[in-house]
Design a protein that fits this description.
By secondary structure, this protein is mainly alpha-helical. 72% of the residues lie in helices and 0% in strands. It is built from five helices and no strands.
Length: 128
């Protein structure tokens, strides 16, 4: 990735996601209307456990994106395609939320998904 502004936006989006997912894991009040449809007054235990897995997934995305931004190989190759698909699903889920604050999460989700889409396209170019 050569565009430093875009890379900065991607890392800022990752930071927002980790902050928000961490807030759900810890049951923080700032996350109540920004996650899980904004429908909870207290996050249930099962949801907090699911968000631990979500936190691990976002952290893994950070690792993969960082490797790519430093010009290192991304392995396994299929993971980038999976991140694009998961990102598209995340965009749709956030856009369909009943919570106005959660709908704003579409922006970082879109930035991250576009970043992995660019990685996917650059891998396809290299294979040709």
């Amino acid at each position: 990735m050569r565009n430093k502004t875009f890379v900065t936006a991607v890392f800022a989006s990752f930071a927002w996601n980790l902050y928000l997912v961490g807030g759900v894991m810890l049951g923080a009040s700032y996350a109540l209307d920004r996650a899980a449809g904004g429908q909870f007054e207290v996050f249930p235990t099962y949801l907090r456990i699911l968000y631990i897995l979500n936190f691990a997934l976002v952290a893994y995305q950070v690792v993969i994106f960082t490797r790519f931004s430093y010009g290192l190989a991304v392995k396994p190759k299929w993971i980038v395609k999976a991140f694009v698909i998961l990102g598209a699903l995340g965009i749709l889920a956030n856009a369909a939320s009943r919570s106005a604050n959660e709908r704003w999460n579409v922006i970082p989700a879109l930035i991250i998904t576009f970043a992995f889409y660019r990685i996917l396209k650059s891998d396809i170019k290299e294979q040709k």
